[in-house]
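User: If you would, consider this record:
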Amino acid sequence: MDCATKLFSPSVWIGLNDMKEEIIFACADGSESKFTSWAQNEPNKQWSSAGEDCMEMRKVKDFRWNDKSCEQIRQFLCSTPAEAIPTVCEEGWYMFELSCYKVNNDKVTWKGNL
């Protein structure tokens, strides 16, 4: 994923949130996430009027996760399983382990397009 991280702005949305149930993080498609990569002292659920229900990766924290207000505007990262053997990603997507990732240069709120 090193080549893909060079394309990221300081923060990028990933498809995780706890909008359905507090501190239970699920993917945008509703499936449960078993993998975590939280930054130190995260998720911290700092109080704000908008809450911190959406997940971002932060460049200053080596792309570790941070919970953030969904109203913030960020780039977003998409992923899809790679094709079966041979492992290939579509043009514009980057391979990391068994998935293909694409960074969209449009910036949106988390709720806007994920």
The two ends are 21 Å apart (CA to CA).
